[in-house]
Amino acid sequence: MLDMPAPDAELMTLRVARAEPAADGIQLFELRHPDGAPLPRFTPGSHLALRVPSGAMRNYSLCNDPRERDRYVIAVKREEKGRGGSVGLIDATRPGAMLEVSAPRNLFELDTRAPEYIFVAGGIGITPILAMIRAVQAEGKPFRLFYLTRSVAGTAFHAEIAALGDHVIIHHDEGVPDNAYDLWPVFEEPSKAQIYCCGPRPLMDAVRDMTGHWPENAVHFEDFGSDLVRPRADDQPFTVQPGPDGAPLEVPVGTTILEVLRAHGRPQPSSCESGTCGTCRTRYLTGEVDHRDMVLTEAERRDAVMICVSRAKGTLVLDL
Q: What are the coiled-coil residue ranges (predicted)?
């Protein structure tokens, strides 16, 4: 069951203590309480929902040691072709800025009972894995890490991870498919290890295929529902109407219902903005919905829509 996030009223305001490159195209942010107060605890694999300069909420994994109470550390990849959240955050946020963030939540929980671990990280997917490794190291448990990136320059935390020892493999494919690291020998024989994988969809699909013969509860993935928010080739503009008497508003391709309502002075509760938490659930009165969330049941979809990811055809009338 997914954790239910805090409503906007419960967001914390934290100060940016550091904002600096972690690698080419990746920015590290260190967040602290403005009064120096201890921060809510988090567990390995946790993330924050953070309000970016556009007003949207975006999820970012915590990568520092979960035992720390004085700071949160995230690393943000600049997504030039994304929805603008990462670009706005990186370009507009300097040390001393104040940001609204949720309390930590965990949809990628580390099984602390496991005797050993196999971690697979692709690119920026290293962030939750790094927090897990810090926790596993503190317990003195064995682990292996396979960190797969395109180049040395784009590898976040490269020096720190390379120093972890010979049970870590860092592989750069230079963007050439034939140079991809062969993970099959790692997963060919099931063991008592728990597997945690975070990274691009092709990597996670490959790991899923290679671990089909492992126990289902031994293999774990995290991607914040990124495929749910990515525009599709057949997407078309549609109209959303806030209430039977509301003015129709166009929802262009690449823009969500939530963002359109926000831009027209009708902000709605939201948190993950990736179709995975349920905060923005909204009742609709009429319309043909293209449901894209991971929360609603088929029965619930008859009169509810997650306005952060789902689209529609024609006109969608919301009960607002």
A: none
